[in-house]
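Hi team,

Filling in the usual template for the complex we talked about on Friday. All components are listed, including any nucleic acid strands or ligand strings, so the model treats them as one assembly.

SUBMITTER: L.P.
PURPOSE: interface mapping
COMPONENTS: three
RESIDUES: 1239
SEQUENCES:
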Amino acid sequence: MTTLNNMEETTYAIEMLGITKKFGNILANDHIDIRLQKGHILALCGENGAGKSTIMSILFGLYAPDEGIIKKEGVEVKITNPNDATNLNIGMVHQHFKLVDTFTVLQNIVLGDETLKEFRGDNLNIVKKSLNYLNKHIFKILDYKKAREDINKIINQYDLQVDLDKKIKDISVEMQQKVEIIKMLYRKNDILIFDEPTAVLTEQEIQNFLKVMNNLKKEGKSIIFISHKLNEIFAVSDQITVIRKGKYIDTLKTSETTKEEISALMMGRKLKDFKEKSKKTPKEEVLRVEHLTMIDPFSKKKVVNDISFNVRKGEIVTLAGIDGNGQQEVIYGITGIKKARDGVILLDKKDISSYSIREKIKAGISHIPEDRHKHGLILDYSIYENTVLDRYYEKEFSKCLFLNEKNIKKYADELIDKYDVRSSGDGNTIVRSMSGGNQQKIIVGREIERNQDLLIAVQPTRGLDVGAIEGIHNLLLEQREEDKAILLVSLELDQVFTLSDRILVMYEGEIVGEFTPEKVNKKTLGLYMSGAKKDEVNAIKEGANE
Amino acid sequence: MSAVLFLLAFVSILTIVALGGMFSEKSGTVALSLEGCMTFGAFNAGMVMYVLPNSVPAGISALIVILVAIVSAGLYSLLLAVACVTFKANQTLVGTALNILATALAVVLIKQVTRTEALPLGNSRLSFMRFYEIFNVNFFGMQGVSFNWLIIIALVLVPIVYVVIYKTRFGLRLSSCGENPSSADSLGINVNKTRYIGIIISGALAGFGGLFLITMNSEWEFANGATGFGYLALAVLIFGQWKPLYILLGALIFSGFKTLSVFYSSINFLNNLGISSYFYLALPYVVCLIVLIFTSKKNVGPKALGEPYDKGKR
Amino acid sequence: MNKIKSFFSSLIKKDSTKTVVTSLWCALLGLILGFFILLVINPSNAAYGMSSVLGNYLIFSNPGDRLNYFGQTLAKTAPLIAMSLSILVSYKAGLFNLGASGQYSIAVLVICFLGVGANWPWYVVMIIAMIAAAIWSAITGLLKAFFNVNEVISGIMLNWIALYLVNGLLSNSSSVWDGAHSESIMITSEYNSFIPSIGLDKLFAGNSIVGLGMILILIVVIIIFILLKKTTVGYELKATGLNSDAARYAGISKVKSILIATAISGALAGLSASLSLQNGFTSWRLSSVPPEIGFQGISSAFLGGLHPIGVIFSSYFIMHITEGGSMITDLGFSPETASIMTSVIIYLSGFVFFIKEAMRKFEIKSELNKLSRNKENKV
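RESULT (copied from the run log):
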């Protein structure tokens, strides 16, 4: 009885009831209920692909639900586009920020909700009044000065320091996130949605961000916080709603549950343990990078600054770090996708620094790129055509100028079989129509089957569901067993710890620490990744020099 | 007609049309159809000019003609908007189709009405429009420098466009649609509507420029469209890096070479070189190509230029 | 019965079938709009005008005339097919060849000097013309590959440069220029540079412009088809066109692909000039705009569904109505009426992707409906 009474007394800032959304044949949301209490933080959690982003996009008016209703403060509302959401004071920080790179911070904040110039005061003369009228309805000239004042008030109230005149492309990811938060506050939003806000932040930045969330809550804002990181969820949230594979599972009070319980609800089944990494001693060196330096052609900054390391047979070396600290560029340098300013790259003791991309591939480098759609596959090619993307010119697959279709098909069918690539048809299926996990299997299969010396994998499990991640992990570990050298770039600490034999931490284009997973914990690694230990490292270096 | 006048007229036309194209490109649609919009606007205006009775006062007829040019070309550019914005068609393909269509329509209909290949523009009432007969200003001791309102419009248009693009709400939103349509959309800005408006402004200004191009002549053969002025304006726009002031500068440079191709024979030195007149005709295009080589490496154009906005792909 | 049904339903589902259907729609709509314009201009003659456009050679009652003009339309289709292939090849590599007119012009220059002036054998002239056009086109490729210059803009600029270059050089050399008609001297069957008729003229009532050119172009179509479908070069070109980044990551050289694609499409534009001028049905006239055929090529390439075989039919169709259009001048219509129709067709080709997508969605929907209906029936 008491619970029922409590229920009636509670006023919900937002209720989403029985929300269902289909994309084609895929049921992204299946009767999901979400209730956000006023002034509370509700964590929405679930695995990748559980439908978290979809339901929030529905709340924000980006998608129309097929079924279900949305209530704000008990009153049913229709949200058909972002304008409706804004009018209801609902704001959202998307996982990929919605900022215009070439605009300044100030322009980005006011965009869509601009302040127009007007003469202010009580006794305006007729000229000023009519000018006001004209500007309001016809010219619509902007008042950046007034906007700046308003924004500065917000910045001070919530302690969100940013430089309003810098362009977005020139500021850090953390700053960009602040801009997104200010954008919502500037629009006087009182219901705030954060979609995976901490994915791009360092440990320290995450702590700051959690403080900001608490500040927002103190000021009476209601917040929905999408995440699958349990530490953060338990640090700030009041309630937790769990969804799994598009279905609503449960809502629990944070104070009355445990991480284990939530984890179990999220997964649905107990995760199969990853294959235990065997003890192995690495053998001879495969890759050696010496004094690699890369320059960004536009900013002229050193994005990779004089780094050296090696990878040996039978080990997985991981470049860890926050996104954008030069890991990607190191890979570009090794594979030849971008020209290095300086440095030597040796593969099996041979200098391959000046090789073209094709020559490097032939020399024995395999590369699983981060963005499979943009860089890994030709989406409008069939599976057959994609399986030979970096070896169609080999003798086996072509004679003179002609493709040997018979051999290509035979090879591809074997690969499809071996890596369990599933599609709606045979190898002639266009890759675009396939799921992400199966697309990734084509790439991984293609790169491994080349019988390479060095396998480079950049975030090979990005955006995949749990099952697919497991598969990819096991394939990488198998390669390690077969004494291949593997260079991995990963942003996810869990992955770093499960797979690596050695961890190289990158910060601002430099390697600031080297560890074995047994001898370091996540917290220390996080400190290195955020640059907090950089001064110490430098001090040690200088000490050594003396 | 003096070379200075010729130069100023070309500068004005190129500036007006290129500024128009800027509205389309800033919002994310390639302005390849400028040539067609110039042709179509000029053709409609020319036809109205041709059929207007003599009793209509010169001022009013000029006004009508200008309105016809602007409105018809604006409507014509709607064809581009429907295909490329709503139906996400290939912008180069549709732009090319509209350029050919405008020429073909003009030729067919003019032949039907006038029974001649070229549209005669010798009507004396039109002297009001003819830019070189407007007003002569003698200042700083320079003799016979004539200004007309075409040049003045072009000069005034530059600061106006500057303010519209950089200081108004419309300008900010327009640019955001060409730079990052998905973020514009997430802020409740109607991307497709904004692009429609950008395209229509672009067409309207191109029509206006087309009208003035043909009134510089005593007749106009529409089989040649706008004789490539629309393409040149597009090049000026790219050369001007989508910025109003640079566009003016670019227009000045290209007009200089264009003027040279008309007047080189009256310059003794150049005439004595004995180079074919065709060389001078080709020169603006060669210069344009060279300038593009130096400016294209650093890609400064709107980021989403040429990409239709697909809501599903956000 | 069911077999036939399933055969048709699988035929309808095929992508190529959709392309054909939408292309036919575009052509039909273009014709209807053209008819509408004829109606506006001259209602009493419109029906007859339209039948001339559509009928072309069929309006002649004498079978000899019919054959003769049919042959002429066929022969004139050959250069248009070449031009469409030029657009098609570069499009497959992700480039829009708006510079085809300029490449055509450069080839004309070579043909006039070597074919008219020097009277070299036809195949030598043809090959050199193709090489010259390929080199001219490769300028666009070089600018794109090394300086990131948009190929559309540089193509347009090169069109005008080529135009003035050819105008200037031809009109100043009396050996190739017919000053009285202000056009280049026509290559006739007396010239060595005339593409031989190999007896085909006899099939078409002695029309000498019908000849080897038509057979050559069919061979070229097959070569291009094989090049794109079966060879490593085609594989590379298409990969670059579909996703140049992924192609680069896989070690395919973008520079090489761009240069090959622009050179091939230039050579094809050159072939187009060769098949026009060396067949003796056209010459170079002084003009202040680049030759129209470069743009006509765009319409037939897209109308043909960007498929080498499809291009044969679309080119014939466009040449058929263009030739038909030139017959209606007596009725008080301009031959450009056909040009209106073709530009409308290009415009509508822009919608092809959308229409095909809509057809696909419709199919899925009806399929789902069928499934659910079946379920209900079972219940």
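MY TAKE: The first strand of chain C starts at residue 177 and ends at 178. Residues 79-293 of chain C form one domain.

Thanks, L.
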